[in-house]
Amino acid sequence: MFLDCPAYLDNVGSLRCGLPAEVEYRYLQTSSDGPLESAKIKCPLGHWFNAPVEFLTWEKDSDAARISRAGTRGPANWGPPSTR
C-alpha cells in the first residue's frame, strides 16, 4: 500500500513532497473514541511519518489551489508596476 508523502518542502506550507510513501507497517492505536487505524510510512526522499492514517492523507486539489493563489501574490508582484 502507498500514500502520497505529506511532508512540506517549504517554510510557508504551500509545497508538498507528494512522492509515493510506502506503508512499512500498520497497527491500531488506542484513543478515547476507540481504536484508530495507524501506519508508519516512508517516501524515497527519507521523509517518514508514524500516525493515524486519516492524518497521513491530504487533498491534492486544495494544495494546488493554494500554490496557484500564492504564485500571484509573491514578493515579485508587490509594489508599483514600475518596480517589478
Describe it.
Strands 1-2-3-4 form a 4-stranded antiparallel β-sheet. Helix content is 19%, strand content 30%. The chain is built from 2 helices and 4 strands. The chain is globular and about 35 Å long.
Features:
2 helices; 4 strands; globular; single chain; 84 residues; alpha+beta; four-stranded antiparallel β-sheet
Number of domains: 1
Proportion in β-strands: 25-35%
Radius of gyration: 18 Å
Q: Structural class of the helices, strands and pairings? A: alpha+beta
H/E series: EEEEHH
Instruction: Give the N-to-C terminal Cα separation.
Output: 47 Å
- The assembly state of the depicted protein chains is single chain
Uncertain ranges: 63-81
Widest sheet, order of strands:
1-2-3-4
Q: Overall 3D geometry?
A: globular
**Helical coverage, percent range:** 10-25%
Main β sheet profile: 4 strands, antiparallel
Mean pLDDT across residues: 79
- Note the total helix count: 2
β-strand number: 4
Blueprint (SSEs and pairs):
Layout lengths: L1 E3 L15 E10 L6 E7 L5 E5 H4 L3 H12 L13
Antiparallel strand pairs: 1-2, 2-3, 3-4
